[in-house]
Amino acid sequence: SQPQKRHGITKSISLAGPSETDIERNTELEKFLIESGLYESKEESEKREKVLGHITEIVKSWVKQLTRQKGYTDQMVEEANAVIFTFGSYRLGVHGPGSDMDTLCVGPSYVNREEDFFIILHDILAEMEEVTELQPVPDAHVPVMKFKFQGISIDLLYASISLLVVPDDLDISHGSVLHNIDEQTVRSLNGCRVADQILKLVPNVENFRMTLRCLKFWAKRRCIYSNVTGFLGGVNWALLVARVCQLYPNAIPSMLVSRFFRVYTQWRWPNPVMLCSIEEDELGFPVWDPRKNHRDRFHLMPIITPAYPCMNSSYNVCKSTLRVMMEQFQYGNKICEAYKNYLQVDIISADAADLLVWKGWVESRLRQLTLKIERDTNEMLQCHPYPSEYVDTSKQFAHCAFFMGLQRKVGVSGQEGQQFDIRGTVDEFRQEISMYMYWKPGMDIFVSHVRRRQLPGFVFPDGYRRPRPSRHPNHHNGKTCEVAPRSRSGSAERQIKRKLDETVDKILDKPEKRASISP
Ligand code: 3AT
Ligand code: MN
Ligand code: MN
């Protein structure tokens, strides 16, 4: 038997690497993320590094000054030191242009948080002209000093560890830093320890990063990115994505995004998501364990942090937010499984009462259309009819539509660029349809090819594109979808087509406008 390298607490689901299509999609995905403004410029990232340098200088001289004031020896003053670590999205390498920088200052045992950090360092910062919006939050679950340094948002935490001298190369992933410190300090150190672990536990850091960027962007747009409101925040999304990376160790981001939705639509919560097994109490700090702690049993969506002491990072999730997120995962999954190309069959009738029979007739012949298409393309083009339909009888004429996913037969090499002309097939189908015994003027069908992005919103109710508030009833002026009659023409025909276009415009929601719903 072949030994399989394990990533995380179980075997991986698949070791498959990318196909050529996956690689192409990955390039497109990356382009999309760049165009969406998710990456900062070189200048901006250099600025962040400079700011980090400044803050490091500030805390080092603060500790030195305190060492002197507290009466330590000259040698102690000489060796006095503090170090800055980063965590959060900046540390993970997934921060955007506007992200904050989460930083932790680790200082010696004799420099405390209550006075030295929140009063003395606070006053030093308050004096500096680079520092604005200084806001100490000493009573928080994780005490933090918030400010902007040269316009960049900083969250600065402080941890005093049980060493007299903090070495520059201090390794905080080692459990020994947790000796003789209080729980608040443990929590302050933990952001960094968690980030360290995540980066160690994923099989490929670059693939993890791009996938996480993509899913954070998606979650923000779907309005489910927020810890305080009971959804998920940066660290939670990072852990979910990291677990998917472990389950598909050779997959690239274009694959990982769809695997993400596949995994989490099937996940049976409250089974916990974990990147590694939970370490037993070595130092006696409370660890997430529903078998021991009664209150941990009520967690609905446990996403466990990978550094000792392991905690559930998503205790804020409640029944309703879990439901909303599950719905969003479902829609995400549906979209990822969606075809790129569709055939849209619009069925209209001038009289609403006639639509039902007319639709019934067309529907009964649709199977013929799929058969004809597969026959005429030597089964190289495959059809997937969707049984659901859309009906709209609220207009001057009645309208409904069916959709069929189209895909090239998979596993046939050398055919990638092949085009299919199915106009003849569609015409034949229309001929057949027009044989309807009870045909009346005003009954018609239109068959058109649409791309996935042109699909009307009703194909993915509530989830794919959100209906916008109806403040501006005329906001659908732009053309979004071509519903072209194939063979017949005539002025009555054109008129009805125009009306149909108007209807289609009304039910469509332009994808570019989706940007307007992002918070
Ligand atoms: P942004 O890009 O800033 O939105 P982020 O991952 O940096 O994403 P935050 O700045 O909100 O997120 O949080 C910074 C870190 O604080 C991430 C994590 O180490 C810690 N943290 C925040 N919320 C939690 C939580 N619920 N459980 C454990 N750690 C948390
Ligand atoms: Mn952050
Ligand atoms: Mn932050």
UniProtKB/TrEMBL annotation:
<keyword id="KW-0507">mRNA processing</keyword>
<feature type="domain" description="Poly(A) polymerase central">
    <location>
        <begin position="207"/>
        <end position="339"/>
    </location>
</feature>
<keyword id="KW-0808">Transferase</keyword>
<feature type="compositionally biased region" description="Basic residues">
    <location>
        <begin position="466"/>
        <end position="478"/>
    </location>
</feature>
<comment type="similarity">
    <text>Belongs to the poly(A) polymerase family.</text>
</comment>
<feature type="region of interest" description="Disordered">
    <location>
        <begin position="460"/>
        <end position="519"/>
    </location>
</feature>
<feature type="domain" description="Poly(A) polymerase RNA-binding">
    <location>
        <begin position="392"/>
        <end position="468"/>
    </location>
</feature>
<keyword id="KW-0539">Nucleus</keyword>
<feature type="domain" description="Poly(A) polymerase nucleotidyltransferase">
    <location>
        <begin position="8"/>
        <end position="202"/>
    </location>
</feature>
<keyword id="KW-0460">Magnesium</keyword>
<feature type="region of interest" description="Disordered">
    <location>
        <begin position="1"/>
        <end position="22"/>
    </location>
</feature>
<keyword id="KW-0067">ATP-binding</keyword>
<feature type="compositionally biased region" description="Basic and acidic residues">
    <location>
        <begin position="494"/>
        <end position="515"/>
    </location>
</feature>
<keyword id="KW-0547">Nucleotide-binding</keyword>
<keyword id="KW-0479">Metal-binding</keyword>
<protein>
    <recommendedName>
        <fullName>polynucleotide adenylyltransferase</fullName>
        <ecNumber>2.7.7.19</ecNumber>
    </recommendedName>
</protein>
